[in-house]
Design goal:
Elements lengths: L1 E9 L3 E4 L3 H13 L3 H9 L5 E3 L6 E3 L5 E4 L5 E7 L5 H14 L2 E3 L4 E11 L2 H9 L4 E11 L1 E2 L6 E2 L4 H15 L10 H7 E5 L5 E12 L4 E18 L5 H17 L12 E7 L5
Antiparallel strand pairs: 1-6, 1-8, 2-5, 3-6, 4-5, 7-8, 9-14, 9-15, 10-11, 12-14, 13-14
Helix pairs in contact: 1-2, 4-7, 5-6, 5-7
Protein name: CRISPR-associated protein, Cas6 family
Pfam family, one: CRISPR_Cas6
InterPro entries: CRISPR-assoc_Cas6_C (IPR019267), CRISPR-assoc_prot_Cas6_N_sf (IPR045747)
Length: 285
């Protein structure tokens, strides 16, 4: 698994959508498509959660254009890309090589972003397991830094709260799709509900409606946006005093994995990005 940390800066000030992850995702696919069309197509069509991205993180100004924000010339913005599928080393190579060697500019609709710096971080599934083994009395702090849209099963209902069952079951489904067969986790919703406790930080909690896609409306003969609802904020997850070690360790594996895969839907389009910290504490009922 890889995390790619980029800093970018616009050549001029210009507007981008408030939900900028969708436009960045499209720009990234075009970027890869220039030299590796098959890889770009594979990412777009893959049923696996192989790619996740944040939107741009930094200082913005209000835009006069509704639904947009303005990025500023001279400002530096941070952008993170996660690659989770172990079969997708080619994907990592095709993303990182142009950034590192060509230092190319990334073209958005209204302007271009110059690549200032690139850093990469690698972690294997075994590395995560080793980290978990070193934990004694762990708890998880999860910062949801981009709108997190967790669909309830196959319904149109979206979770609007960092509920422990919804969050960890979402990560579990992504993990089991890409991990080696021998490392699959056999957990269910009740395991998370019974042995995890969530404590959100109310002052950080926000709700959002984000653009995640556009589709062609055949009746109205034009494209229309698809919006999803989600939340951002910080939540602390601790374990009950009677939590079995196997469930505690499996939950920690998922927490570490979340930084690479994201939480919920539309993670390739900027949603569900998290920063995870595992801390040691005393268990409480």
């Amino acid at each position: 698994m890889h995390l790619i940390h980029l800093t970018v800066s616009p050549k001029t000030s210009f507007d981008i959508p408030l939900s900028d992850g969708y436009q960045l995702y499209s720009a990234l696919l075009s970027f890869i498509n220039e030299k590796n069309p098959s890889t770009s197509l594979k990412i777009h069509n893959s049923p696996l959660p192989s790619l996740s991205t944040t939107g741009l993180m930094g200082k913005f100004e209000k835009s006069f254009h509704k639904g947009h924000k303005r990025i500023l010339e001279g400002e530096v913005y941070h952008w993170r890309i996660g690659v989770t599928d172990p079969e997708d080393e080619d994907l990592f190579t095709h993303i990182i090589t142009p950034f590192l060697l060509d230092r190319k500019e990334l073209s958005l609709h209204e302007g271009e972003l110059c690549i200032c710096s690139v850093e990469t971080q690698y972690q294997s599934f075994q590395d995560i397991i080793q980290k978990v083994k070193e934990c004694q009395r762990p708890a998880v702090k999860m910062d949801f830094i981009t709108p997190t849209c967790i669909q309830y099963r196959n319904s149109r209902v979206t979770e609007m709260f960092p509920n422990r069952i919804a969050v960890f079951f979402s990560i579990l489904s992504k993990y089991n799709q890409v991990c080696p067969e021998e490392l699959r986790l056999s957990l269910n919703r009740d395991d998370f509900g019974r042995y995890l406790l969530e404590s959100p930080h109310p002052q950080t909690y926000r709700t959002h409606s984000v653009l995640t896609n556009t589709i062609y409306d055949t009746k109205k003969q034009h494209h229309r946006p698809i919006f999803k609802q989600g939340f951002t904020g910080t939540c602390h997850y601790s374990f009950t005093s009677d939590a079995p070690a196997a469930i505690r360790n499996a939950s920690l594996i998922l927490a570490y994995f979340a930084e690479y895969c994201g939480v919920g839907s539309s993670v390739s389009r900027g949603c569900g990005q998290v920063i995870v910290s595992v801390v040691e504490e005393s268990y409480e009922n």
